[in-house]
Amino acid sequence: MATVSHSRLSCFESCALQYKYRYLDKLEGERGESIEAFMGKRVHEALQKLYTDLKHERLLNEEELITFYREEWERNFHEGILIVKDYTAENYLAMGEKALRTYHKRFQPFNQATTLATEKLILMDLAQDVQLKGYIDRLDRTPEGVYEIHDYKTSGTLPDQSDVDTDRQLALYALAVKREFPDAKNIRLIWHYLLFGVERESSRTEQELEQLTRETVALARSVLAAQSFPPHVSRLCDWCEFQPICPEWSHLFRTRELKPEEFRKEDGVQLVDEYVRFSDEKHAAEQKLEEVKQRLISYAQREQVNAVFGRDQQARIWTKETVKLPDHSDPQQEELVRLLKLLGRFPEVTRLDSWELGKIIEERRWPSAVLKQLEPFCRKERIYRIYLRDRE
Ligand code: SF4
Hints:
Largest sheet: 6 strands, mixed
Distance between the termini: 81 Å
Shape: elongated
Number of domains: 3
Bound molecules: iron/sulfur cluster
Mean pLDDT: 94
Helix content: 40-55%
Number of helices: 15
């Protein structure tokens, strides 16, 4: 039986290559742990200590909690911690402290429920071939018999209700709690967004849990059977420990080490610079060409000629009035499709683009009554082309 965790599945969903490096190749990340992850761990530890002490009838006051947090921060901190954003480690230390102080003030004396476990290990068979592994930050039981699954978050974004209503991780843990505690009829899922001092709550029905199990098993099987692991570039790359070896970024890291002179001479750097230069020149030339084309058309109209002769070549100006219809980027297209369906003409054009439909209208291939109804969608447009030929 294969064991998967929510983080393993999420990793595959966000970037299959990162998944391969981390879970299949079991590579050590080339970069250190991020400061966000480090701060999150210290905050989790402090809250775990708070509730473990409570189980032993010892209530940490706010200052004791902060002292524990600061001591653990200092004991674990090392220079290899990765800071991506433009802030210092002190800033993050202070953020975690503020979050813990806010939490302590809000929930002391922490007697809302009985804590059954902290960092509770979940090992649950989802199917014959798939087992789920995870940890519940805190499992509580209220005096009313409601089980509460608490999750501590130190992320800098606050999700909306629909995000937590579709969250997979805590819902799967709810399933595990149901199986382990037969009296757990009512389970509340609670996320503590500690940096905001805000909680989000949700719950799941039996049917939703069954559906989620089916989906998770299908996802786990496809992840376990995956043969291809394409990279997926996103803003998360900045925090990815494999960025220096990932083909999407490794060139950046390699060339960052070079001295300025070596950097300028590096083949890839030179090729990209050259490519950019030619692209810019091409773009400028295209703009210039369009400008000259318009001037040439105006000249031909003014002189009432169809061809203008240069020293070596002649420019022949071809023009035609066409019918322009709304394309897919135009909201009117939906209305046009509705009308075509109503007129029984849609099957003839489902595979046609608006340019081809325009031709049908121009060539009046459909009955006049049909064409009449399409008129509001038609816009006349004159197009011009210039063909160069040798002078005779
Ligand atoms: S750097 Fe980005 S694309 Fe590369 S493995 Fe990491 S997450 Fe994936």
